Amino acid sequence: MSEDKSEDKRSNWSRRGDLLKGIAGVPIVGSVWWAGASKGVNNTQARDSILKTLNINASPPPPSGPMAGDPIRIGIIGFGIRGPQLCRALGFGQKSWLESMAEAAKKNPKDTRLSSFLEQEHLNVHITAVCDLFDVRAQDAIDSFSTDVVKVQRFRTHQELVESDVVDAVIIATPDHWHAPIAIAALQAGKHVYVEKPMTHNIKETYALKDVVEASNVVFQVGHQHRQTQSFLTAQDVVKKNILGHVSLIQANTNRNDDNGAWQYPIHEKANPNTVDWKQFIGNAPMIPFNAEHFFRWRKWWAYGSGLSGDLMSHDYDRVNCILKMGIPSSVVASGGIYTHKDGRNVPDVMQVNMEFPDFSTGSSQVAGKEKGMTMVYSATLGNQYGRTTAFMGHDATMEVGNSLTIYADGKSTKFKEKIVSEEMDPNVPIYQYDPASGSVDGVTSATAKYFADKGLLWTYRDGKRVDSTHLHVREWGSVVLEMVGPQVVTLKKDLKRP
Amino acid sequence: MTSHMGGLSYKLGRRIDWNQAKQEIVQVEGYDLDEALLEDKEKIV
Q1: Cβ separation of B6 and A332 shorter than 8 Å?
Q2: Which long-range contacts (CB under 8 A, 24 or more apart) does A20-27 make?
Q3: Of A74, A375, A364, whose CA–CA distance to A243 is shortest?
Q4: What number of other Cβ atoms are within 10 A of residue B42's Cβ?
Q5: Can you give the pLDDT at residue A433?
Q6: Could you tell me which of A397, A401, A47 has the C-alpha nearest to residue A234?
Q7: What residue of B is the nearest CA neighbor of A357?
Q8: Any A CB within 8 A of B25 CB
Q9: Of A202, A346, A355, which has the smallest distance from its Cβ to B34's Cβ?
Q10: 3-class secondary-structure state, position A186
Q11: What is the phi-psi region of residue A354: left when phi exceeds 0, alpha when psi lies from -120 to 50, beta otherwise?
Q12: From CA A292, how far away is CA A278, in angstroms rounded?
């Protein structure tokens, strides 16, 4: 194959997708593993040779500790969209959700959302309190989660909830402008905190929250659930073994094209100034008269949300940072506009963010010192859902990371030059693929759900079984909370700094 | 912090730098960066 043809093929993402479809379904040890050589899938010797050369240690993130001891009493602050999802991750499904999932499973036997939820590990937690500013939602939590043993108590303000003695820990799933103030109040009240991303809404809050966390003796965790994705640790091993060579460019993306993805959430018919505590919702944002659209679709305004950069890029950046540990970029340039949804919002729906890391290096296969520096490009649109991958582009190979992990040798690689010349490796065929989902994604009912699923944010796999990523993430938080009750507090706090 | 740099760059229409030694975003003359971030307008510049 000529070099020109090779380059043509590599620039064609859809063709790459076709190639992937062709190789899916070769199960080894419960997952799909594959190393491709130009001489064909059946060339076992070549495949084994490549796998031996790569020596990638594919493994999931380490399991978190036991959930033993007295149940953690959790207060939910914010029970809109994300709040109920986090409750399900804890093992508590709303009545309405359970009913709709049962109906969905009846209609489509492949829809495993309910069965996955029911098979989820019991986490030894109680939901004892809720704070939501909309009466209907607060009552929903009370009706759904109260039992004969535990009655869910409603608090009108987060201050009252965090200071109460009915909770040991809080989960914060409010609009962004309330994340840090509530987290700080909870930490100061001695409550363990799980706060959704973005951690803060402005710069001063970031330093203030950091100080309070460091001065506290409780567990604090931010909702970046992709750290539980099956391919995550494998990606770290790929980088550690310098398989990619010098990574000069990373591309990460958001592509969504439906109302939900564009933050056009439903507006509840019963929302009005009598059922919503509007003054409290506004907080430190500019006061305006009651506005149901602002209340339910707050992500569309800078006053309450953080736009694409805070809501979605934060996931992509965190994922890449956890794999490469490149830290905060030395400079950032962003551009974009409101090009698809001219509906009164003031956060962009198309955005490009270039993050520069001029002194960063992942390693090299060439002359020492020749290569240094990297750009991460985050590119987002809420007007198209073409599935672009997160790609780590190195001199020797490109790694695509999502719920699966795929590596392609680069046609001009130094490290793999001999294998490419001998046609043992073909730059157009993956030299490595790790796909615990065996190429299938079930139970996807919306484009936005698929977007999150592809990123590993909705669910991941353990031993070939589908598991809610958020469940694993809150479990990790909960297990450390429970362990901290014992004498190992200092050790565990130190351990919390592990990436 | 990186997300805040992205939001600021978009709103101010310019490059935002990070001071690694001081662990802070480099100030942009004429702007309070937090006010710029929270300003409820699509773009400031």
Answers
A1: yes
A2: A20/A406, A20/A430, A20/A433, A20/A439, A21/A439, A23/A429, A23/A430, A23/A433, A24/A435, A24/A438, A24/A439, A25/A438, A25/A439, A27/A438
A3: A364
A4: 17
A5: 87
A6: A401
A7: B18
A8: yes
A9: A202
A10: helix
A11: beta
A12: 9
Residue A316 has pLDDT above 70, yes or no: yes
CB contact under 8 A, A203 and B4: yes
Size of chain B, expressed as the number of residues it contains: 45
Are the beta carbons of A444 and A275 closer than 8 angstroms?
Answer: no
For A148-204, the pLDDT digits (tens) are 999 999 999 999 999 999 999 999 999 999 999 999 999 999 999 999 999 999 999
Look at the block and give the residue holding tokens 């490419």. A420
What letter represents residue B43's amino acid? K
Check CB contact under 8 Å for A346 and B42.
yes
CA distances (Å), origin A104, targets A100, A449, B3: 6, 15, 37
Alpha carbon A33 to chain centroid distance? Answer: 23
Site of tokens 């030694």: B21
Given the DSSP bridges, would you call strands A125-131 and A72-77 parallel, antiparallel or unpaired? parallel
Separation between Cα atoms, residue A420 and residue A412, nearest integer Å: 9
Residue A159, class by beta-carbon neighbours within 10 Å (0-12 exposed, 13-18 middle, 19+ buried)? middle
**Cβ contacts (< 8 Å) between B34 and chain A: which residues?**
202-204
- Joined tokens for residue A433: 């693929």
DSSP state of A178: G
Q: Is A274 on the interface with B (CB under 8 A)?
A: no
Task: Read off the pLDDT of each residue in A203-227 and give the average, rounded to a whole number.
Answer: 94
pLDDT tens sequence across A55-70? 888 777 777 888 988 9
* Ramachandran sector of residue A124 (left: φ over 0; alpha: ψ -120 to 50; beta: rest): left
pLDDT value at A261 more than 60: yes
**Cis status, amide bond into A198, omega within 30 of 0:** yes
| A348 contact residues in B (CB cutoff 8 A) | 10, 42
DSSP H or E stretch at residue A391? strand A390-394
CB B39 to CB A302 under 8 A?
Answer: yes
Residue appearing with tokens 């773009």: B43
pTM: 0.87
Angle between helices A135-145 and A82-90 (to 10 degrees): 10
Q: C-alpha A222: how far from its chain's center?
A: 11
Q: B37–A314: do the CB atoms touch at under 8 Å? A: no
**What distance in Å separates the CA atoms of residue A115 and residue A109, rounded to the nearest whole number?**
10
Whether A130 and A152 have beta carbons less than 8 Å apart is answered as yes
Segment A411-459, tens digit of pLDDT: 999 999 999 999 989 999 999 988 766 544 444 456 666 666 666 666 6
| pLDDT single digits (tens) A466-481 | 788 899 999 999 999 9
